[in-house]
Amino acid sequence: MNELRNRITAALAADVVELQDDSAKHRGHAGARGGAGHYSVVVVASRFAGMTRVDRHRAVYDAVGDMIPHQVHALAVRAYTPDEWQRARASA
Amino acid sequence: MSEITNDRIRETIESNKILIYMKGSPSFPMCGFSAATIEVFEELGVPYNTVDVLKDPEVREGIKRYSNWPTIPQVYIAGKFIGGCDIVREMHANGELEPLVKEALQA
Questions:
Q1: Least CB-CB distance to B70: which of A29, A68, A78?
Q2: Helices B97-106 and B32-44 sit at what angle, rounded to 10 degrees?
Q3: Which residue in A has a C-alpha nearest to residue B82's C-alpha?
Q4: Does B73 reach chain A within 8 Å, measured CB to CB?
Q5: CA-closest candidate to residue B13, choices B47, B41, B43, B48
Q6: For residue B97, which of A72, B4, B46, B92 is within the disulfide window of CB 3.0 to 4.6 Å?
Q7: For residue range A17-74, what is the model confidence (pLDDT) as tens digits?
Q8: pTM to 2 decimals?
Q9: How far is CA B23 from CA A19, B27, B94, B104, in A?
């Protein structure tokens, strides 16, 4: 989990990486066999500005790289710029 | 991936206005993310087609290379890769998805 967080932080120069381990919710599900985890992550990075959602998610997946699929089975991503993050938090 | 698989995937995507690559079927999704994606399109009440990647290992791997996207489900509208479960849900929540879907269905 630390490695996952470190990779995302380093690759994207992220301001915020909030990583959550959802593996317990998926216990018994075929994809969770062999210890591959289900995670969700909020990533806040200024470099997301001007990028489409697909490109933002790709950038996160690229950072995680070969940890998918054997260590990480699923990674739910929410990617924000610092401005969008402020607004998302204000409206939450 | 073989050229044939790639061509087959492209043809399938281009011949469907809304296409979802998923695990299982809409009635029996085999993964929570696939189920959540189907739910979005059911809420929109629009026609869509699905491909069960669990039935064909070549398609399961091929589709990931085709879109350069490592996970299933994958949603294609009017031949264009839109995203996975998170993106589609987010776009549905903020009202971006419906106009895109309607435009594709009218085309």
A1: A68
A2: 70
A3: A54
A4: no
A5: B48
A6: B92
A7: 999 998 887 776 665 556 678 899 999 999 999 999 999 999 999 999 888 888 888 8
A8: 0.85
A9: 25, 11, 26, 24
A76/chain B closest Cα distance in angstroms: 6
User: Taking CB atoms and an 8 Å cutoff, what residues of chain A touch B34?
Assistant: none
Asked if B72 and B23 touch (Cβ cutoff 8 Å), the reply is yes
Determine, for residues B69 and A26 on separate chains, whether the beta-carbon distance falls below 8 Å: no
How many structural domains are present in chain A?
A: 1
Cβ-based burial of B33 (10 A; exposed 0-12, middle 13-18, buried ≥19): buried
pLDDT tens-place values along chain B, 107 residues long: 578 889 999 999 999 999 999 999 999 999 999 999 999 999 999 999 999 999 999 999 999 999 999 999 999 999 999 999 999 999 999 999 999 999 999 98
Going from the C-alpha of B69 to that of each of A23, A90, B25, the distances in angstroms are 21, 31, 21
Spell out where A1-80 has E strands: 16-21, 37-44, 72-80
Domain CATH code at residue A39: 3.30.300.90
Residues spanned by the domain of A21: 2-91
Q: Which chain A residues have a beta carbon less than 8 Å from that of B82? A: 54
3-state class (DSSP) for residue A74: strand
**Does residue B83 sit at the A interface (CB-CB below 8 Å)?**
yes
